[in-house]
TrEMBL record:
<dbReference type="InterPro" id="IPR004360">
    <property type="entry name" value="Glyas_Fos-R_dOase_dom"/>
</dbReference>
<dbReference type="Pfam" id="PF00903">
    <property type="entry name" value="Glyoxalase"/>
</dbReference>
<protein>
    <submittedName>
        <fullName>VOC family protein</fullName>
    </submittedName>
</protein>
<feature type="domain" description="VOC">
    <location>
        <begin position="8"/>
        <end position="123"/>
    </location>
</feature>
<dbReference type="InterPro" id="IPR037523">
    <property type="entry name" value="VOC_core"/>
</dbReference>
<feature type="domain" description="VOC">
    <location>
        <begin position="141"/>
        <end position="259"/>
    </location>
</feature>
<dbReference type="InterPro" id="IPR029068">
    <property type="entry name" value="Glyas_Bleomycin-R_OHBP_Dase"/>
</dbReference>
<dbReference type="InterPro" id="IPR051332">
    <property type="entry name" value="Fosfomycin_Res_Enzymes"/>
</dbReference>
Length: 312
């Protein structure tokens, strides 16, 4: 597309059957702050982020990814994107209008190539946030989301052509092809990634901590609390960021990370990393081998919300 309307990742929203356990997990263990809770929908903010919320949890009989939300520069960019998507035959959930969720703003929702609900908005009110202090092992902000797709090549092309995302790096296996596309919408190495999987689903969501010490303290705190760690601590090659992956109470994978690369748009050239090399998955060699068990955990359950807009 001629321009890139997307400025950054705002939040991801999930629906879960075990609502109270998910609320307890984010509030009392993951380190997020409750911004609003009506007993059926809870908004959580990261203390270091100006975004009104980084994740929204909705009580539901069915587990699903409700939506992924991105920011746009202004109302004009929102309107232009909506017009472009309509011209390309993309199904909108609704025309650009006032946003009814926490923080307000102006935006609209639409379905991506595989039927996930995507939201793009501008003029959302910022929240009063603060500097996360040294040794404070809570998330500073939402870092990125990763989506599983049975056809990642088509998904990559769709996000490039429709939303202006750029490819940062690729993970590849010579026999099975490309396994992972890291996509950026700003200087951050990736705000979204697309992973090869058997079905459309949320692979994982990642939260950035202040630094290595805070990241290690947070990882250790969750391990001591008995939450199931499936991989890490370690450091990836693509993006050069740290990782520790945990399974939340509803079976979603959540990551603590820090030190994700920043990209110089004028000089960056995407690399292709061979997943057979151990350093591709973990430069440190401390996280344990990436194996079929970890991969299966990250496949998650098939998303039951495709082409069905969430009620909130």
């Amino acid at each position: 597309m001629a321009f890139s309307p997307i400025t950054h990742l705002r939040h991801f929203d999930i629906a879960v059957p075990d609502y109270q356990k998910q609320i307890d997990f984010y509030k009392n263990h993951w380190g997020l702050t409750v911004m609003e809770d009506d007993g059926g929908v809870t908004y959580f903010a990261a203390e270091g982020s100006p975004e009104q919320y980084s994740v929204r949890v909705r009580k539901s009989d069915e587990k699903r990814l409700d939506l992924v939300s991105f920011g746009a520069a202004d109302r004009t960019a929102v309107d232009q994107l909506a017009s472009d998507l309509i011209a390309k035959g993309v199904q909108l959930v609704g025309e650009p209008d006032d946003v009814k969720t926490l923080g307000g703003g102006y935006g609209f929702r639409f379905f991506d190539l595989e039927g996930r609900t995507i939201e793009v908005s501008a003029d959302v009110a910022t929240r009063k946030h603060r500097k996360v202090e040294e040794r404070e092992d809570i998330p500073v902000k939402l870092s990125h989301v990763v989506l599983n797709s049975p056809e990642p090549e088509k998904m990559r092309a769709w996000y490039e052509q429709h939303l202006g995302f750029r490819l940062s790096d690729t993970l590849n296996h010579p026999q099975t092809g490309d396994l992972f596309y890291f996509m950026r919408c700003n200087a951050q190495h990736h705000s979204m990634a697309i992973a090869r999987g058997p079905h459309a689903s949320l692979q994982h969501a990642s939260f950035e901590l202040r630094g290595i010490d805070e990241y290690m303290r947070g990882s250790g705190r969750l391990m001591r609390a008995g939450f199931r760690k499936i991989w890490g601590p370690g450091r990836h090659r693509a993006g050069d960021n740290t990782f520790t992956y945990f399974i939340d109470p509803n079976g979603n994978t959540m990551e603590y990370t820090t030190e994700l690369d920043a990209v110089d748009e004028d000089t960056w050239h995407p690399s292709i990393f061979d997943v057979r090399e151990p350093e591709t998955s973990d430069q440190w060699g401390t996280g344990g081998e990436m194996d079929e068990f970890i991969t299966k955990e990250m496949f998650n359950d098939p998303d039951k919300g495709l082409y069905v807009a969430p009620p909130v």
